[in-house]
Design a protein that fits this description.
alpha+beta; binds fe (ii) ion
């Protein structure tokens, strides 16, 4: 992690974040810290038994089970497959280790290695410097972006999925491997966070998730710029910043770890998808 001398954001960096909606901090995490997360994720996948889940993910008819598996993952460590991971007969095309899309969404609470990485003084200080008061770490994901089958994540705003009133959230995206246009790096629209929230994914009165659309115009993809970064770089993303990553068709993986911090003084609505049970409320850096 950062040395103490580099721990605080400069006023230029804060200005840049306000202007662009993202900030690229090279060498934020040491190589050893990145490798430790990669090894831990590998171990978690090895210990994961996909029996029973493969059928849930591989057939269209099971979409409600797939939805329940996702929507119930806010307080758990769950494993999600790549869409291209399955053969027509429902079997995996390749090994389990090469088929996982991501692990989410409470790694930072439940796994000691991820918790240690997520709750460092450096990250706590960074979140404070971004102006997020009484931060709560609501979500963590380990994203594999597997070689050849790593799927596209279409252009979106994180506040559409983790809404707060007022908008008060930062996404922290740690490159655990070099990320390039070849293996599916992030792309973002500089300044796009100033153009409002386009939609919100919320739970309706029947408990079903759906998009409430405020602005039906598509994101201006022609304004997306690639954010190619080396291992250890932290990209900070404003909740309203449109961003995406393309499919990875290369032979190289593109592992990343993401953490989302929201301001504890803001309202976190009950119709957001990600909820915690009373016995496991959102926590900060404690
Ligand atoms: Fe995102």
């Amino acid at each position: 992690m950062l040395t103490s001398a580099k721990m605080r954001l400069t006023s230029e960096q804060v200005t840049k974040y306000d202007r662009d909606g993202f900030l690229v901090l090279e060498s934020f995490a040491e190589k050893s810290a990145c490798d430790r997360l990669r090894e831990r994720a590998e171990q978690l996948v090895l210990e994961f038994d996909p029996a029973g889940l493969v059928s849930v993910f591989s057939t269209q008819e099971q979409s409600h089970l797939r939805d329940d598996y996702f929507l119930g993952s806010g307080d758990k460590i769950r494993f999600f497959f790549e869409e291209d991971a399955f053969l027509p007969d429902g079997n995996l095309k390749q090994s389990k280790e090469r088929s996982i899309n991501k692990i989410g969404h409470a790694l930072h609470e439940l796994d000691p290695v991820f918790s240690e990485f997520s709750k460092t003084t450096a990250i706590k200080q960074l979140v404070a410097d971004l102006g997020i008061e009484n931060p709560l770490l609501v979500q963590s994901m380990y994203i594999f972006k597997q070689p050849r089958i790593g799927g596209e994540v279409t252009c979106h705003q994180d506040s559409a999925f983790l809404y707060t009133d007022p908008i008060d959230i930062a996404g922290l995206w740690f490159a655990l491997e070099d990320a390039t246009t070849e293996n599916g790096c992030l792309w973002a629209i500089p300044g796009g966070h100033k153009e409002g929230l386009k939609s919100r994914w919320r739970r309706d009165s029947d408990g079903r998730m759906g998009f409430e659309v405020f602005d039906p115009a598509p994101f201006p993809d022609e304004r997306l710029v690639p954010l190619e970064v080396s291992q250890g770089t932290l990209i900070v993303l404003h909740g309203l910043l449109p961003h995406r990553s393309l499919a990875n068709r290369s032979p190289k993986s593109r592992h990343a770890y993401t953490l989302h911090a929201v301001g504890g003084n803001s309202h976190y609505p009950e119709d957001n998808w990600l909820q915690r049970p009373a016995e496991m409320p959102f926590r900060g850096f404690d």
